[in-house]
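Follow-up to my earlier ticket, as requested here are the two runs.
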Amino acid sequence: MSEPTNTGREATERAAANTGEQEREQSAKAAANVPADVAKQAHANGWSLHALEQNSWAHVQHSPLGSMWDLQGVPVLEVAKRTWTGIDEDNLFGRASQLAYSFFSAIFPALIAMSSLMGLIAQSSGKLYYELLGKIGQLIPPTAFALVTDTFQKTTSASTTGKVTFGLLFALFSASVGISAIQDTLNSVYNVKETRPFWKARLQAMGLTLMVAALVIVALLTLFTGDWAANHMEGLFRGAYVLAMVFRVCYWAIACLLMVLSFEVMYYFCPDVQNRKWRWFTPGGCVGLLGWVVGSIGLRIYLHYFNSYSVTYGSLGAVIILLLWFYLTGAMILLGGEVNSEIEHAVAEKKLLNGECPLPPASAVGRVDVNVARKAS
């Protein structure tokens, strides 16, 4: 009898030792991710840092901020430090490479879907469609843009308009791969488990693909019609260059606002966060769009003066450049989501420590993905 008893006691002791080791490891990880003053205040309030991380993320998911611009006393520098740390710990750039592959798989179905949507707007949409593609070409590197347009022409020339239109649903389903990848990555950024059924998440991704495509089309139409109107204004009113310049600034501003709105749509619908509040403009959306525009222009300038991809990769150079631009796009989308999540997390942490809000319900704490979450694992 003594041998089984000793064996059971040893197993219990090993389990207790493992539990204690896990708790120490969790506390060490949490301590490495919170400022010293926050850790001091947490200990003074009787909070373990691991519990503070879990409850603050749960509060973000249960009761998000009403305004992302109101930091409620949290220094901007602290948000920047959290974002910098989160970029590394969430493996943001690694996930951006995953998004680049997903975007590459979705680009041609997305173009077919956009072509079908343009066909619903105007039956003779071919010229208009390629005019809009030309606007996109102002951001995409020229080699990659030529690859996209050539492949699209070969794809659509083999099909009638009816076939392309009837294939809209299939194109949407294929193009939604990119949005599905964004859903997964933003769930990780917000440290939340995916609870939506596959069919529901995929239908939502298809709907988001339509919404984002529509916003992009409207933004491109704004640039196209605005440019035409500005040129017409200069011809109609000779010497009205200042007025035309003001008009150009206005329609570019409207197009940028529409693109920010497309970012906000993704940040609102993609993560599986409960009780979300719609926000028209957030710091993350503005940072993401600004980084995307500046990065795209910088990539074009770099490739113009230092393009060695064609020499190194030969005919695959255009594919590599397109993947590089998709990587930049994915990184900026995730960066904006990271900024928003860190703002919400920092404010929730401060409010919990100061006793300014009740503890989130156990159901919200249970949705925190402690196996993936960088600060609560």
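Run two:
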Amino acid sequence: MAEDKIIPETTGDGPSEEVGFLASVINEIIYSPLNLVLVAIITVLVYKILRSRQQPAAAPPPEPELPRLRKDFTVAELRAFDGNQPDGRVLVAVNGSVYDVTKGKRFYGPGGPYAAFGGRDASRGLATFSVTSNDAAEWDDLSDLSAMEMESVREWEMQFKEKYILVGRLLKPGEQPTSYSDEDEDTPNESSTPTAAAATATESTTKPAAPTTTPSSPKKTTPATTTTSDAPSKVEEVVAAAAGGDG
């Protein structure tokens, strides 16, 4: 007798339904022009997003470095260095010192948030936290600032000294500029002046010479040499006398 085989019942919930769903979606896309356009737009947008993430934006080329400037400025002369001149150099004065802030041009140059300080004495503005242009044509002695405001000026000066290059001094009325050397970094070259050279020469000629021990060497060795040369002759006399007595 043949055995009856149990055949499992099939239901509609299977791979056939998944295939049918995918086929219906593909058919909707293929046979509908609007869906094709939407798919193309989405594909292009995804491609651009992925490409922008993979390729970082190229940094702008650095500006050519300007030659080192060593000079003292009056208030009127400093105004010419606000970044609008052909070389784009920006100078800022803080507490009587002038600094080259060209590398921070995006802050102190034209269009920057602190452009009002470019080519100006920024001491008062930094002390009072006021970003306004100091258009005063005369030297500002800051005598009306409080002790706390002056302390703020000195703190700003330390920050500028650590970050930017010192160019020179902001001259007071009637003050003469300093002559700087190319090798100097922060101070004028005083050793190259004729007065300093003469003082150095005078000091070297008037300095007493150090005593030497050369003359004392012969005095110590001469007696030893004489004694050494006389000693063999006395020995010989004693030996000769003893030999004569034995004879």
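The only thing I checked on run two: The beta strands are 91-94, 97-100, 165-169. Let me know what else you need.
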